[in-house]
Write a structure and sequence with these properties.
The chain has 12 helices and 8 strands. By secondary structure, it is of the alpha/beta class. The longest helix has 20 residues.
Length: 273
Amino acid sequence: MTTLNEKTALFGKLHGPGKCLVLPNAWDAASARLVEDCGASAIATSSAALSWAHGFADGENIPPATQLAAVREIARVIELPLSVDAEAGLDAAPETVADFVVKLIEAGTSGINLEDGRNPPDLLAAKIRAIRRTAQRKGLSVFINARADTYLRKLAAPEALLEETIRRGQTYEAAGADGFFVPGLVDDAQIRAIAAAVHLPLNVLTAPGLAPIATLKSAGVRRVSAGSGPARAAFGVLKAVAHQMLDEGRFDAMFKAADDLPNLNTLLQRQTD
């Protein structure tokens, strides 16, 4: 049986030089198992999608216990390494965040995303250091993907965004992060500049205008995440199906959308035998 630390080591290797880890993010056990069956190398959650699936708005609204329970459900049905979007750690205090991340690791997590949001970057750096200390005391390891929200939230003037993002990336690198996530980054030249200046695997988020994965890989990107995109697409299909049934009295869109879907009972059967 593969141990948690072995899965974490494997997850880290998926970010190695010359690699580009592609993550169509999941939000519950069934979506995670389906993504695994499609040939993914690892599974990652979207904080927004997971929150929506449990009746909460995104943005640190999901109770930690609810997130932990969801992580356990996902980890139970997959064999691949699991990365969890932990937002800002669901708390401001670094030691509290560290304790929560250890619980995520014990629930089956190999990696986490941890964001700075509108907080000073020194706070995220302190959280990273606290997680390292607490996990090491317990003999555990985790891949920390530090997220800078500079582009996503426009935290600097346009002409200063690149410099500020690089500064944050280097701060998180020095604190002990394993990866650097910059959602909202789409410009090829700026992607190349950040990949060259921050010596951590660079993670970008799918967005309109973002280059294809092969081009991103050549620019130095080592991880591409879909975020809440797959969940939004699934909910978009549900909306279309509901409107067709309620407004037109038809249901062919539902069957068309599910044409190529594997039998979920079959995918999940091995977990209930």
